[in-house]
# Entry
Amino acid sequence: MSAPDYAQLDRDDPLAHLRSQFELPTGRIYLDGNSLGALPLAVKSRLADVVAGQWGQDLIASWNRHHWIDLPITLGERIAPLVGAAPGQVLCTDSISVNLFKLLAVALQLRPGRRVILSQQDNFPTDLYMAEGLAGLLGNSRCESRAVPEARLLDSLDDSVAVLMLTQVNFRTGHLHDMQEITAAAQRAGALVLWDLAHSAGALPVELDACAVDMAVGCGYKYLNGGPGAPAFLYLAQRHQDQVQQPLSGWMGHQRAFDFDPRYEPASGIARFLSGTPGILGMAALDAALDVFAGLELAQLRRKSLTMTRLFMDAVTAEPALAELGCLTPRADARRGSQVSLCHPHGYAIAQALIERGIIVDFRAPDIIRFGFAPLYNSYIELGTAVTALVDIVAHRHYEAPRFQLRSRVT
Ligand SMILES: *Cc1c(COP(=O)(O)O)cnc(C)c1O
# Structure
């Protein structure tokens, strides 16, 4: 099989112009947007303005004058169309971990006769840790965290399950769950469903309302490009909102925060999921980052993402020198997200060798190299260059050099 004409693919790419909206260091190929999105240029200027103009000049008046106080709601409304949510159901706040805690507690309230949080064994660890933390707090008679292998998920939906908590795209393998089918199956069994969209939002169209999803969380710093530690978001379907009281009932979620009433009264709607003061610099950065999505057709984004991941897998499979690498990512378009995960016993060292050559990927224990394709800014030429470098590193065993064996804290 001859290599595709990557330059021609770039010329034909209807999204190619978006790349110029990002700061991308020359001489480097960034294939880690699934972990930390690249810097949108709009963020640089917005932050400079918020710091110098708003905070610096207008000081505390900025909460009203520059609508700082509204940012969690207005950002939620800007994220909503990216995840298929009608207005009034998405809030931008806190981290995924903290939002999971709030929503899981609410799920138990909504299913008082049930105590199990069911999840998948290889879910992202924080999802499992937060469920265990809540179970520890509430005690075993009220909450149990249960994680089973993927193949046993649907069979495990017995009448003790209050909520099924799943990540739509697996962070290790890039496997994509069928949201519609699984949501329906869980709801038929009387459970609620909570989807973690960390590797979906901004990478592929998500249809929360159309799938009748109950709750969801998602990440601001991955495919939404909001910057390191950007605020996350949560979704709770309208039909559940006014019946629940979230446990982190801070003043920002009060109906009238500035009455300073000693009695807590939750705000109406999704705003009750606020806890403390929002981090305005992070919110402002995410707000500017979302400009890139304005007017964008998510189906088009998805087409490019699928083409890139398919071409990358094809190129790896076609190359005899790469036969010793396994591919963990599904070939079926409907079953994968926007990353390709390859495995190799020397995966860590191979990732380091790629990084030394300016091809930024990441590694996940024990042996996985992740290649994230961000359709907003990655080009087909970059994909081709990454394949060539990978072949050279593996065929000549360049990864065996001692300097590639040293581990840092963040991989
Ligand atoms: C990245 C990621 C998180 C991160 O959670 P934070 O609390 O926002 O740091 C959570 N879940 C999944 C599936 C992720 O991929």
